[in-house]
Amino acid sequence: GQNIDQPTEMTATEGAIVQINCTYQTSGFNGLFWYQQHAGEAPTFLSYNVLDGLEEKGRFSSFLSRSKGYSYLLLKELQMKDSASYLCAVRDSNYQLIWGAGTKLIIKP
Amino acid sequence: IAGITQAPTSQILAAGRRMTLRCTQDMRHNAMYWYRQDLGLGLRLIHYSNTAGTTGKGEVPDGYSVSRANTDDFPLTLASAVPSQTSVYFCASSQDNTGELFFGEGSRLTVL
Question: Which residues of B touch A44 (CB under 8 A)?
Fold first, then answer.
């Protein structure tokens, strides 16, 4: 079967750095997405990785290793508004998106 | 309209009733999707459409139907609602089946 694994919940301190991991086992690979979802709201796109390596976008970076079936989302200089769930999703060989259950990130002052 | 609009935003429904969730996008995206999101589970695909006039079944299609008569609209119908269909439903679109998804604000459905 196909599955995406990410931690259920993480806690971090305002101003710090946090890394959210995602491991995947899918039928084929056509890209990995990270989305942010605030409570009661819709998911919004954060990043996309299709090649190995690090993609940086402001305070957020995303890393991919296809050989290890592994990605992480790195959030720097954490702000209270970063409290949200972070969803990892992989496109399989049929171009269907397989979603993880999400990681709830709690930021403490 | 900017992006994707879903209606209603919230609905309480008696079991056995028929319900249609509406979804309209103005981005001229080819692909559209319906997901349900339940606590502790990832987004699960119900139905999708890669282009107007075509639809396909996702991971959890039973009890749901869709149509795609034109590019902009992608309604989801529950023919006879059951309590297990209580969920938050998200409509999404993408330019094609490779790009990022844009989501509507969601429809919270409670079936009693």
Answer: 103
